[in-house]
Amino acid sequence: MIVAGCDIGSTWGKALIMNNGNIASYTIRPVHHIPVKTAHEVIEEAIRQAGLSSLEDIDYIVGTGYGRLMMIPFAHHTVPEIACHARGAQWLVRGLRTVLDIGGQDCKVVGLHEDGRIREYLYNDKCASGTGRFLERVAKVLRLDVKELSSLSLQAQNPAAITSQCSVFAESEIVTLLNQGKEIPDIIAGINEAIASRLATLVNKVGLLEDFTVTGGCANNLGLIAILEEKLGIPVKRFSEDPQIGGALGAAVIAAERSKEGGKKNGDSRP
């Protein structure tokens, strides 16, 4: 059985194909100004990498993410990202109880029961200061690649204090710190410290239970993850695959289940 998940988020599009319960391929690309174009590009690339010919080779496709209802026309069914990130994370790391997804423009914490059912979840979609988009803006101000933020943060000797809770004002603080001659690794470490504090507060509102993991592209920011582990007092379980595929993987897992059950090929399920 061949199934797929397609996750069109606010900043990145992801598609993943599973063949008989194993990951066959996946692809990740920035979202175009026309998201439906991104959806077609990522699924077509995943199809190519999996050695398939076309969409017709896939038995069932589940869509998720911001663009799930309008931007993934080839999906047989759609599921909210909360459910997909939880299922994807649990597929990669068995026994997870808390999942933090750091998205492009929001953050989500999902608390899980022992059997994997969703216990509680919480969004933070009112401020971009703890998201991937904010880190992209930080990198732009510092004239760095986003990937450099991870390695440079680990080189910090005296992390700067970032006091603003607003991403716009935080950018102004960064410029001020640069003008004061602060070292770039110290500034990045200060940014990660501020973000980790906000994320830890969000996680604790849901109720932190081990085992705990982080999904989304920001999970690749080792400096941020190290500070978050320190604040929460427990280690972050790491994935064997790119943590950015969590939503697409969960969608593919759900697609496999629906296909086996003979699920209808339409509609949107709630978490």
Descriptive overview:
With 271 residues, the protein is an alpha/beta fold. The protein has two domains: 1-93 and 240-271, ATPase, nucleotide binding domain (Nucleotidyltransferase, domain 5); 95-238, Nucleotidyltransferase, domain 5 (2-Layer Sandwich), CATH 3.30.420. 40% of the residues lie in helices and 20% in strands. It is built from eight helices and ten strands. The chain has helices at residues 35-49, 81-92, 132-142, 146-153, 167-179, 184-206, 222-232, 246-261; strands at residues 2-8, 12-19, 22-30, 60-64, 77-78, 98-102, 107-112, 118-124, 212-215, 236-237. It has a five-stranded mixed beta sheet with strand order 3-2-1-4-5. A five-stranded mixed beta sheet has the order 8-7-6-9-10, with helices on both faces.
CATH-scheme architecture of the largest domain = 2-Layer Sandwich
Largest sheet: 5 strands, mixed
Mean pLDDT across residues: 88
Q: State the share of residues found in helices, binned by percent.
A: 40-55%
| SS field, number of helical segments | 8
Shape: globular
What is the class of the largest domain in the CATH system? Answer: Alpha Beta
Low-confidence stretches: none
CATH topology of the largest domain: Nucleotidyltransferase, domain 5
Structural class: alpha/beta
Termini separation (Å)? 25 Å
Q: What is the number of strand segments?
A: 10
The structural domain count equals: 2
